[in-house]
Design goal:
With 114 residues, the protein is an alpha+beta fold. The chain has one domain. Helices cover 31% and strands 11% of the residues. The chain has 3 helices and 4 strands, in the order ββαβαβα. The chain is globular and about 55 Å long.
Length: 114
């Protein structure tokens, strides 16, 4: 599923379970790319890391940005304290948008994906 920044669905593709998410994303993006002439950037989770970013750039001209949590381990000079790692739930920017859209869909009994 591809949603815009407010969470409204732009497009969705249902495919077989034996197709990886990255390959399913290619199916979706190839299908709807013609109708999105002003699109420039796509945010995605780590599962879409890899060659799909290159494919998106050369085929569609879009940039792919992977939303990552903060690093647990960082290099700091010997005389400095490392920055504290946030405790508990970490809100990742742009990641909640698709999760919220799926929650909206799941509230409607007839649209349940389970």
């Amino acid at each position: 599923m591809l949603v815009e920044t407010e969470g409204l669905v732009i497009g969705a593709v249902v495919h077989e379970a034996n197709i990886a998410d990255r390959d399913g994303a290619k199916l979706l993006l190839a299908k709807i790319s013609e109708g999105l002439p002003r699109m420039e950037k796509v945010w995605a989770e780590r599962g879409y890391n890899g060659k799909i970013g290159e494919w998106m750039k050369e085929r569609l001209g879009w940039a792919l940005e992977i939303v990552k949590p903060p690093r647990r381990w960082v290099r700091v000079p010997a005389n400095e304290e490392p920055p504290p790692y946030p405790a508990g739930f970490i809100v990742l920017p742009r990641r909640w948008v698709i999760e919220r859209t799926i929650a909206w869909i799941m509230r409607n009994r007839r649209m349940s994906r389970d």
